[in-house]
Amino acid sequence: MSTVPAAKPIHAGPEDSWHGVVAPGSRFAPEAGRYHLYIGLFCPFAHRANLVRHLKGLQDIISISIVKPYPKGDDKGWPGWQFPGAQGPDDVYEGATRDKLFGSKHLHEVYFKADSEYKGRYSVPLLWDTKENTAVNNESHELLRWLPTAFNDVLANGSPEKEMTLYPEHLRADIDEISVWMQRDLNTGVYKAGFAPDQETYDKNVPVVFAALNHLEQIIYGNSGPYILGKDLTELDIRAYATIVRFDAVYVQHFKCNCK
């Protein structure tokens, strides 16, 4: 059974994000060196895509550029994430890179190459097609679903990377069910608490985050680990890890997402 999602417009207009899929026989065929991934090391949603890139051994197949974590722009996201050098020759940040495709100062410049009227957020991750010179996808949950199998045709036969799937058929119903509340209550839940505009909103959202963590712990215990659903590494583990690895350092300390 295919893990490619049902067809939808790749980009319906300036208000829409990009929903392209890399797949054999499609507009975006799997080819080594054709695609470029924009991420930020600070972002758990971009981290998901980069984790898949590494787990699947795609480092030499998909190149990468990394934005700085600050400044992120105003409340509408303008001008958005920057690359080193945007503020001058001394503007550097460890781990960030220049825009290896276009030498852009801001990520919005890349977005405008795909749609000069784009009105959405200039978010990471963003997967770019260098052949058609356009965006493929900037929805992290969509990338997490199809990227693990998208380049199997160019991976070595019999390699563990080619055999790896993060959406095994016998676990798909559980993955689909858990993904909904994990995304709502944990992955974005920490931001609902951290960016709460008032104490009442904060008090409402913090318990939801810790309830989700407790629920996950119960599921892992019930399935005897080592992964959330037992012996199989799935996209749920990628979702959870990218958030939990930031929990003490960012969400507790910076967002004050703490029950104490």
Automatic annotation (TrEMBL):
Pfam families assigned: GST_C_2, GST_N_2
Gene Ontology CC entries for this record: cytoplasm
An example Gene Ontology molecular-function term: glutathione transferase activity
Positions of the GST N-terminal domain: 42-149
Protein's recorded name: GST N-terminal domain-containing protein
